[in-house]
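Exercise 7. Given the encoded structure of a 464-residue chain, write a plausible sequence.
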């Protein structure tokens, strides 16, 4: 652009016009901001905040108490805590909107109350969604929607925007985009509420005392699936999918179960069999075919959660409990017998060894009390290459069966201490080494004072 062609007078005129409009806008803003009506609105907002803070103390305390009382119901407790956190702004915004309604009836301006109320509405919605939604994408979506609606309402553009959405034309066809968006939001809300309700029902069933943990866990999973399935039907109907299409989809799903989903369906049936047979229950201590041992924490529709003593969670498909050989150490009786092998040197008094072994068993807390016929015993089980082989045979109490590694370590420790106390030797492996020379060796004895001389015949083996 050539600087010589710039019309200085035109630019100056535009700047003057803009400055004049800015002065008009600023004067109008100051006139409204410093008006008596605006001062009244600011005072009402401050009073609503103060009254809301005082009035929210009691419900906030009650909601937090309910959340702590029903901490086991995670979703319900989370709702109570979230409403406790927004109780102050919630009461304040109710008072602000009541004041705005009163101003409108009296014919007084209430623009300040409307702006503050809209912003607080959006903030409360965003806060509740953020506290109760674990997925960031959904909370972000609701935040964008809430702030957009608030901005349009403040700028008096909400109604024109709604009218525009109602009369949207796509490829010459009139489409009610507002209804479509509303149906999509209803579908999303239905899916979210279905999942929340399913989780709440599952937690409630698992916490009930009338059902055993295994039954409660599986029923909770089934209830969750039914609730989510109902939510899916509501969501599909809200966006206009007919029930006939759902029937076709169900048939296709059945074919999918027969082919691609047969493994999942097999695990589900296996879970039902486990539930009715009660071969594995929540709280049982089991040993998997791989040798891993652990405690059954959950029996779900597809898999069972097993937690080892190292706090490692293992998800085992339910059909593994039907097909493979799984050892349940606590199926009928948790008490069991273990054998702790040890060896002593040949020549050791066997009665002294028995005494040391029984003393070691008595010192370990895992040994069964009131033993009777299940008293500890010391058996001589073999004659090793360098030791007499014994076994300490002990019956364990119910808690010991869940800690096999620690139990064996404790008995080994006590055995070593008892053997040392009685001066019983734990032998090392002994071997006899016989050297067979290839031929005769000649030895010559020299006088002690004479210097040693090398004899070539003794340094080299005779040749044959």
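Solution.
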């Amino acid at each position: 652009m050539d600087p010589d062609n710039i019309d200085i007078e035109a630019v100056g005129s535009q700047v003057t016009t803009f400055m004049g409009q800015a002065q008009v806008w600023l004067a109008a803003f100051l006139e409204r901001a410093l008006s008596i009506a605006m001062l009244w609105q600011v005072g009402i907002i401050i009073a609503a905040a103060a009254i809301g803070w005082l009035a929210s103390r009691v419900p906030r305390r009650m909601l937090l108490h309910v959340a702590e009382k029903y901490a086991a119901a995670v979703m319900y407790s989370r709702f109570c805590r979230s409403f406790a956190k927004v109780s102050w702004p919630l009461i304040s915004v109710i008072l602000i909107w009541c004041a705005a309604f009163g101003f409108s009836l009296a014919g007084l301006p209430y623009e300040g109350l409307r702006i503050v109320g809209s912003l607080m509405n959006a903030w409360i919605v965003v806060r509740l969604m953020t506290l109760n939604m674990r997925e960031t994408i959904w909370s972000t979506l609701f935040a964008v929607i809430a702030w957009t609606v608030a901005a349009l309402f403040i700028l008096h553009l909400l109604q024109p925007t709604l009218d525009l959405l109602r009369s949207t034309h796509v490829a010459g066809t009139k489409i009610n985009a507002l209804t479509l968006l509303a149906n999509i939001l209803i579908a999303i809300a239905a899916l979210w509420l279905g999942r929340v309700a399913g989780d709440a029902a599952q937690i409630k069933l698992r916490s009930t005392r009338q059902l055993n943990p295994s039954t409660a866990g599986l029923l909770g999973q089934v209830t969750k699936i039914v609730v989510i399935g109902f939510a899916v039907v509501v969501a599909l109907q809200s966006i206009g999918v007919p029930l006939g299409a759902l029937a076709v989809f169900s048939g296709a799903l059945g074919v999918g179960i027969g082919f691609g989903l047969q493994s999942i369906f097999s695990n589900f049936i296996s879970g039902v069999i486990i539930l009715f047979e009660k071969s594995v229950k929540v709280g049982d201590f089991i040993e998997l075919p791989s040798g891993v041992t652990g405690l059954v924490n959950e029996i779900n529709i597809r898999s069972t959660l097993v937690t080892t003593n190292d706090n490692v969670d293992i998800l085992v498909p339910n059909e593994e409990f039907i097909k493979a050989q799984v050892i349940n150490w606590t199926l009928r009786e948790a008490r069991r017998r273990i054998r702790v092998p040890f060896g002593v040197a040949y020549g050791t008094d066997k009665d002294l060894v028995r005494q040391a072994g029984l003393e070691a068993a008595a010192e370990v807390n895992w040994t069964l009390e009131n033993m009777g016929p299940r008293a500890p015993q010391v058996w001589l089980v073999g004659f090793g290459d360098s030791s007499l082989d014994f076994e300490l045979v002990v019956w364990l109490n119910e808690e010991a069966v869940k800690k096999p590694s620690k139990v064996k370590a404790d008995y080994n420790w006590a055995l070593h201490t008892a053997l040392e106390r009685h001066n019983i030797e734990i032998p090392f492996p002994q071997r006899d080494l016989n050297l067979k020379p290839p031929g005769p060796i000649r030895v010559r004895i020299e006088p002690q004072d004479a210097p040693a001389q090398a004899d070539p015949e003794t340094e080299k083996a005779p040749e044959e």
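Remark. Residues 14-175 form one domain. Students should compare their own answers with the one above.
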